[in-house]
């Protein structure tokens, strides 16, 4: 079989394994949807004026949850699964077969593309149907959504694979979830970015999550809110540029640091 | 097809100041089952991993199926099968799923159902791999190693942790593969396993080959004295002799037929092996400060 066909086969294997890992499905796939439900209920009292402003809690938190979903299904899933597969010998086992390495990566990309697409569609459906959140009404916004989403997912995937080399499967959970949680708090996912102190905003600006969240706000929030951003506008061009930069850096890191073997065994 | 499946000349590999492989020469013939024996730290795993293309060597020549494993490509991997020592992963799949997906990587794979049948996994083929016993899991490892129809199979300590019946069954499976023409390089700590399976045995220690022969002849076992023992007047009597047949004949004549509790034994492969490696194991212990 050629590499592409093997990549498709790997994707189906990855999807099977993913869907059978209940914890992963819950904490990466359904988590942002549950949080959107939760936040919409908890913070509804702060948006009592919604009839006049058109802003509801669900609409306000949707961009952040979409951004969190991108990071969870790409970065977190990759970092944790590749670290586990390296430690338990799955990677070495694959390396022992004539499978081309590219097929393995295609399988990972396929998994992330499928899960993150289904996840974002579910998120948007819940937002639209349960909370009446208006979806983008211009082609330009959908185009920006496609750009931010695909760069975010690709960057998260390659960065996650590179990040998996930092720890063993025993410690990878803490090594991934800790920093990621901090980033979510300072990047405007759970807490409005404007409420984050400026120096922390600058820290967050180094990492891609802040830019994914900002891009998603540009997609889903009314233009009137753009003035509340750091730069006073959505900066869509800059968002795409930073995410593209991270995607390229992630790919280079991934290709230069990837190893099939557990640390200290070869 | 070449007569030599694996050819190793003056192979060396050093980790820091430790010479794991120190000038190893070895040939494995096409179609044979070759067992590589040696104490822990002898250089077995390093050697095998160099042959598998997982590890780079420092010096010497290595040819596996006519190709240098260092940087060998897909076409070469297509012809070998590897059963790794540690067996993990795949927990969320079923044996059938794992085998199907692995088989697709090879040019001329075996039929998945046939492999499941041959490895006795039929009853568990559609259960999650997590639920397999140690022995079943190892059978699955072998199934994954042979599904690509390899000419050469690497088996690294395949039966560690097996119960006796599972080991016997496993040996049958390996013998069947060997009869089908697969060349097998086996590493093991079990001397009886080597004796049952291998056409030839190589003993390595300190990164060098100490002895190489058939299991029956290793270390001059055939020419060593045998021990004849029997029961007489309520006590066990025994004689060491180079001519056990004569001894038994004279005993039979003396007893006028059956000799009570008669046994004739030669040093076991294990005795011979331990004798061979003894000097090396001692030096190693002296070198390593406690």
Describe what this molecule looks like in 3D.
The complex is a heterodimer of chains A (266) and B (290). Chain A has 266 residues and is an all-alpha fold. Chain A has one domain. Chain A has helices at 3-20, 22-42, 50-53, 57-87, 90-95, 101-131, 139-163, 169-186, 198-206, 208-220, 236-257. Chain A starts with a helix and ends in a 9-residue tail after the last helix. Chain B has 290 residues and is of the alpha/beta class. Chain B folds into 3 domains: 1-79 and 151-218 and 269-290, Rossmann fold; 90-147, no CATH class; 225-265. In chain B, 33% of the residues lie in helices and 27% in strands. Chain B contains 9 helices and 12 strands. Chain B has helices at 44-51, 74-77, 95-103, 112-118, 134-146, 164-179, 191-197, 244-255, 269-287; strands at 4-15, 18-29, 33-37, 59-64, 80-83, 152-156, 183-187, 200-205, 208-213, 226-232, 235-241, 263-265. A 6-stranded mixed β-sheet of chain B has the order 5-6-7-3-8-9, with helices on both faces. The termini of chain B are far apart. The chains are: A mainly alpha (266), B alpha/beta (290). Chain A binds chain B through residues 1, 5-6, 9-10, 13, 16-17, 20-21, 85, 87-90, 92-93, 95-100, 103, 261, 266, and chain B through 49, 52, 54-55, 74-75, 77-78, 82, 84, 86-90, 92-93, 97, 101-102, 104-107, 128, 144, 148.
Task: Give the tally of structural domains of chain A.
Answer: 1
- Give the biggest beta sheet of chain A: none
Strand percentage of chain A lies at: under 5%
Bin the helical content of chain B.
25-40%
The percent range for strand residues of chain B is: 25-35%
């Amino acid at each position: 079989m050629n590499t592409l066909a093997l990549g498709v086969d790997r994707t189906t294997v990855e999807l099977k394994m993913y869907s059978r890992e209940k914890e992963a499905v819950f904490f990466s796939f359904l988590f942002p949807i549950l949080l959107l439900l939760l936040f919409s209920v908890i913070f509804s009292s702060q948006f009592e004026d919604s009839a006049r402003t058109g802003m509801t809690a669900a609409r306000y938190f949707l961009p952040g949850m979409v951004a969190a979903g991108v990071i969870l299904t790409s970065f977190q899933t990759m970092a944790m699964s590749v670290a586990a597969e390296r430690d338990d010998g799955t990677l070495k086992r694959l390396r022992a077969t004539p499978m081309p390495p590219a097929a393995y990566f295609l399988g990972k990309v396929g998994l992330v593309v499928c899960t993150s697409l289904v996840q974002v569609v579910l998120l948007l459906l819940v937002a639209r149907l349960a909370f009446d959140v208006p979806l983008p009404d211009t082609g330009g916004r959908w185009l920006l959504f496609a750009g931010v989403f695909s760069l975010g997912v690709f960057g998260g995937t390659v960065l996650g694979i590179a990040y998996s080399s930092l720890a063993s499967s025993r410690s990878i959970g803490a090594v991934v979830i800790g920093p990621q949680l901090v980033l979510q708090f300072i990047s405007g996912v759970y807490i409005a970015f404007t409420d984050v102190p400026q120096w922390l905003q600058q820290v967050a600006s180094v990492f891609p999550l802040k830019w994914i969240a900002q891009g998603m706000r540009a997609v889903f929030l009314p233009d009137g809110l753009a003035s509340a951003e750091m730069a006073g506008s959505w900066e869509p061009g800059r968002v795409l540029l930073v995410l593209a930069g991270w995607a390229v850096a992630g790919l280079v890191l991934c290709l230069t640091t990837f190893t099939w073997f557990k640390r200290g065994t070869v | 097809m070449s007569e030599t499946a694996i050819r190793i000349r003056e192979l060396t590999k050093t980790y820091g100041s430790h010479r794991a492989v120190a000038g190893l020469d070895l040939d494995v013939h096409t179609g044979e089952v070759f067992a590589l024996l040696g104490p822990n730290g002898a250089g077995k795993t390093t050697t095998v991993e160099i042959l598998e293309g997982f590890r780079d060597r420092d010096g010497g020549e290595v040819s596996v199926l006519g190709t240098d494993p260092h940087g060998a490509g897909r076409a070469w991997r297509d012809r070998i099968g590897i059963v790794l020592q540690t067996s993990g992963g795949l927990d969320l799949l079923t044996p059938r799923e794992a085998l199907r997906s692995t088989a697709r990587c090879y040019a001329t794979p075996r039929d998945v159902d046939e492999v499941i049948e041959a490895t006795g996994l039929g009853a568990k083929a559609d259960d999650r791999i997590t639920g397999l016993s140690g022995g079943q899991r190892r059978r699955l490892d072998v199934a994954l190693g042979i599904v690509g129809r390899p000419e050469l199979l690497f088996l690294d300590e395949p039966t560690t942790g097996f119960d006796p019946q599972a080991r016997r069954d496993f040996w049958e499976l390996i013998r069947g593969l060997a009869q089908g023409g697969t060349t097998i390089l086996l590493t093991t700590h079990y001397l009886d396993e080597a004796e049952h399976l291998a056409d030839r045995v190589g003993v390595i220690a300190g990164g060098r080959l100490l002895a190489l022969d058939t299991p029956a002849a290793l270390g001059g076992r055939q020419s060593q004295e045998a021990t004849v023992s029997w029961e007489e007047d309520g006590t066990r009597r025994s004689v060491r002799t180079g001519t056990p047949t004569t001894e038994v004949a004279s005993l039979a004549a003396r007893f006028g037929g059956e000799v009570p509790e008669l046994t004739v034994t030669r040093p076991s492969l294990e005795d011979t092996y331990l004798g061979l490696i003894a000097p090396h194991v001692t030096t190693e212990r002296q070198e390593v400060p406690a």
